[in-house]
Amino acid sequence: MSFPDITPELSARMPDLRGRLLANQSLAELTWFRIGGPAQVLFSPADEADLAYFLAHLPADVPVTVIGLGSNLIVRDGGVPGVVIRLGRGFNEIAVEEGHRLRAGTAVPDVRLAKAAADAGIDGLAFFRGIPGGLGGALRMNAGAHGGETRDVLVEARGVDRAGNLRTFANADFGFSYRHSGAPADVIFTSALFQGRPGEPAAILAEMERITQAREASQPIREKTGGSTFKNPPGHKAWQLIDAAGCRGLASGPAQVSTMHCNFLINTGGATAADIEGLGEEVRRRVKEHSGVTLEWEIKRIGVPG
């Protein structure tokens, strides 16, 4: 399907815009699942000032959705109405600061932050090696792996709200909990400051290699997948509940529960977003029936059905 093209109207309202506006742009290739419909408008701002200018001049009735590297995302087949914002090169810098700190743009992949920290002899951020995606998503969902979480190392983050105002949030302002941030939903984070501790680069790189090997041995990282599908319920591990409910390898057409790690869904080739999401809902139903536990989606789902 396609949406009405509103890019001429937006361009007319924003003569000084430097970023790129694309109408009815496919989002499938921007997600790890390789599925989903188009964005009515895909906007890639040039930098933070350009993003603020865009949001300040965007009509209030136009919906805004933000995506990152697409690792933890299902775009539904009908696409996403309004504007989808994806941060790019203007948000991809990393700077080492005094006191074993790193300041990074939110388009930086988590793994790149971990490597930059190791190179600078900054320990405490190696766990980011085990998280697929970018820093913007890590802030939004308090991403974590291998014993570390974003909230453990975040000092502050900077962003732009829906009205185009620049805002700064301290760690305490986020209201972090397991795979959750309570920061205002309308804020698009643009950069963040992380606190580490002194470390030896060789030892940190060795820890990152251990994390890499553990991921490759236990997760289907070379498949078209979206990472962990469901949050771990209190007192349980999602994969164990899914396995106990007999869902390992369960398939719905080309959508399948991974046989390697059954909290991962896989597009084996030609799956639609409806196939993937429908399989996830079937897994939730079977787990609820078997154990009485309700699984909550960890993967973000956006857009309208096809």
Topology:
Blueprint: H1 7-13, E1 20-26, E2 38-44, H2 48-57, E3 64-67, E4 73-75, E5 80-86, E6 94-97, E7 101-105, H3 110-119, E8 122-123, H4 135-141, E9 144-145, E10 148-149, E11 154-160, E12 166-170, E13 188-195, E14 197-198, H5 201-218, E15 224-225, H6 238-244, E16 251-252, E17 255-257, E18 265-267, H7 273-291, E19 300-302
Parallel strand pairs: 2-5, 3-5, 4-19
Antiparallel strand pairs: 1-2, 6-7, 7-13, 8-14, 9-10, 11-12, 11-13, 15-18, 16-17, 17-18
Helix pairs in contact: 3-5
Main location: cytoplasm
Pathway: Cell wall biogenesis; peptidoglycan biosynthesis
Catalytic activity: UDP-N-acetyl-alpha-D-muramate + NADP(+) = UDP-N-acetyl-3-O-(1-carboxyvinyl)-alpha-D-glucosamine + NADPH + H(+)
Quick tags:
peptidoglycan synthesis; Uridine Diphospho-n-acetylenolpyruvylglucosamine Reductase, domain 2; four-stranded mixed β-sheet; 25% strand; 306 residues; cell cycle; Uridine Diphospho-n-acetylenolpyruvylglucosamine Reductase, domain 3; Uridine Diphospho-n-acetylenolpyruvylglucosamine Reductase, domain 1
Describe what this molecule looks like in 3D:
This protein is α+β, with helices and mostly antiparallel strands. It folds into three domains: 80 residues, Uridine Diphospho-n-acetylenolpyruvylglucosamine Reductase, domain 2, CATH 3.30.43.10; 126 residues, Uridine Diphospho-n-acetylenolpyruvylglucosamine Reductase, domain 3 (2-Layer Sandwich); 78 residues, UDP-N-acetylenolpyruvoylglucosamine reductase, C-terminal domain (Uridine Diphospho-n-acetylenolpyruvylglucosamine Reductase, domain 1, Alpha-Beta Complex). It contains seven helices and 19 strands. The strands form six sheets. The protein has a five-stranded antiparallel sheet. It has a four-stranded mixed sheet with strand order 1-2-5-3, with no helix packed on it. Strand 17 and strand 18 form a beta hairpin. The protein is globular, with a radius of gyration of 20 Å. The N and C termini lie close together (8 Å). The model has no long low-confidence stretch (mean pLDDT 96).
